[in-house]
Amino acid sequence: MNLIGKIFVLVIVLMSLLFMTLAMAVYSTHKNWKTAYNQLDAKYKQLDSEYKQANSAAQLTEAQLRGQLDASQSDVGRLQSERQSLIARNEDIQTEINNLKQESRDATAAVASTQANAERLSGENSVLRDNVIAANEAADESFKKTQEATGKLHDAKLELANNIESVSELTAEVARMRVLMTREGLNPDMPLDNTVPRVGGFVSSIRRRAGDEMIEITIGSDDGIRPEHTVEIFRMTNDPNQSKYLGRAQVLSTDGDRAYARILPNLKKGRIEEGDRVATRLN
């Protein structure tokens, strides 16, 4: 077989395959039109029956709805009438409520006025009660003071009697002392401020500054010490022969049980220490 023969054989094979493919495609798309018509006719009849049933149901439903609409319109009319009645009733009730509110306001005002009067009366009652209590307390206090005054008067009478007796005794004592002072050569009428009492004490502290020596002593105004008085300073030992006179100090100021004095340099005889003795007189 030559080349041309081979080409024709190949073309025939290819064409066979092509026609076979076309035949299969036509077969796959082939439809039985009679069977399809019968199916569509059955479906049409079914839909027509359903339409008739639905139309009949719709007519029945429309009649029912018309009846319900009439009944609803009748109900609406009845409800509208009831609404008007309720509105009128509501207005009457509102009027009654307003009247009750006014009555409530009036009652509240009356209650407030009554409460104010009650509080005022309560306050007046409290004031009266306090006044009564205060009057009773004042009466009790007056009675107590009267009793105390009576007791004090009695005590004063006793004290007066005792004082009169004491004055008599003191007068006699003063007369006796005047006699003794006159006998000792003292003037009984000399002012007490000029009299230096015979008292003694100790040096409690010493302060030295700029050549001056200040001492604090344990006798003061309660003992009759006054500024400008002088005190003698000395040191006592167990052996009287060893006692030593140290000097003199002038009182500058005093307290009840203390006095402050300055050492007189021209009369100083030795070093003064805390614990040394002081006295207004040595004999």
Strand content: 5-15%
Mean pLDDT figure: 85
Poorly predicted ranges (pLDDT <50, ≥5 residues)? none
| Radius of gyration, CA atoms, in whole angstroms | 72 Å
Q: Could you give the order of strands across the largest sheet? A: 1-2-5-4-3-6
**Span of the ends, CA to CA:** 191 Å
Helical percentage: 55-70%
General shape: elongated
Counted by DSSP, the helix tally is 2
The count of β-strands is: 6
As for the CATH topology of the domain at 197-279, it is Elongation Factor Tu (Ef-tu), domain 3
Write structural notes for this entry.
With 283 residues, the protein is α+β, with helices and mostly antiparallel strands. The protein contains 2 helices and 6 strands; from the N terminus they run ααββββββ. Strand 1 and strand 2 form a beta hairpin. It starts with a helix and ends with a strand. This is Chromosome partition protein Smc. Keywords: Coiled coil.
